[in-house]
Recover the amino acids of this structure.
């Protein structure tokens, strides 16, 4: 049931994007071939996450205020992301295998890895692949599939099949939201599915998230919080997140 709700909410977000940001409830119901009541119910859930605003007879996308274009996200909290990137890079030895996702923080991590040698890098991010390919004996494996214009990420059935071919020493993921109840959350279902596949096949699982992501919510939970071994962030998380991390068995590292 939860997966079905996530699929419906993701379909609503995609329909709103294609329509330029807003649609009437009746139009969403026709587009998704579901009842208007199903649309209203899921719009209410999306409104609670802050991604959609419910209007009289319709809905308006607010997701761009939370995630935005990849280039815009690179400009948010750059100092914090650089500190996080250096801290993560310091944890990774030469000659290891790593997965890096398409997040803006992981783009900074790719920069911080420029002096590492003989890395095996698995990614679905064209930005990460470009930064680390042909450097210092690295081998870079880039997922196939559809390359998205707004973030340079490769997704689809080919990308999922690609992900299942690898077992990496480390998986390094970014976050749209991280809270004490749901753990790691994202706005995009394709990203979440891809991340789940990678997490299943990784030795040590690291989430790199600046402190603005704490106590936020997004529509899709990526994994059971207990799967995350380490959170690297730029400031002490809220008390409830720290207490939850103790229960999960998740270490927290503050980048300086």
């Amino acid at each position: 049931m939860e997966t079905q709700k996530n699929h419906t909410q993701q379909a609503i977000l995609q329909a709103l994007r294609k329509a330029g940001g807003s649609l009437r409830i009746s139009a969403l119901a026709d587009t998704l071939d579901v009842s208007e009541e199903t649309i209203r119910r899921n719009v209410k859930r999306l409104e609670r996450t802050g991604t959609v605003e419910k209007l009289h007879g319709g809905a308006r996308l607010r997701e761009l205020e939370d995630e935005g274009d990849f280039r815009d996200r690179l400009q948010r909290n750059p100092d914090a992301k650089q500190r996080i990137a250096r801290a993560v890079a310091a944890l990774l030895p030469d000659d290891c295998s790593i997965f890096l996702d398409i997040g803006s923080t992981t783009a900074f991590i790719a920069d911080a890895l420029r002096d590492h040698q003989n890395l095996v890098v698995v990614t679905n991010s064209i930005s990460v692949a470009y930064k680390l390919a042909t450097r210092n004996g690295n081998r870079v494996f880039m997922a196939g599939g559809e390359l998205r214009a707004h973030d340079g990420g490769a997704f689809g059935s080919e990308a999922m099949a690609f992900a299942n071919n690898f077992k990496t020493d480390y998986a390094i993921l970014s976050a749209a939201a991280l809270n004490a109840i749901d753990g790691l959350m994202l706005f995009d279902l394709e990203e979440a599915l891809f991340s789940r596949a990678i997490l299943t096949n990784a030795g040590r699982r690291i989430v790199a998230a600046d402190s603005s992501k704490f106590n936020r919510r997004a529509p899709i939970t990526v994994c059971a919080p207990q799967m995350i071994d380490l959170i690297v962030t730029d400031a002490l998380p809220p008390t409830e997140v720290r207490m939850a991390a103790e229960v999960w068995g998740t270490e927290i590292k503050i980048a300086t």
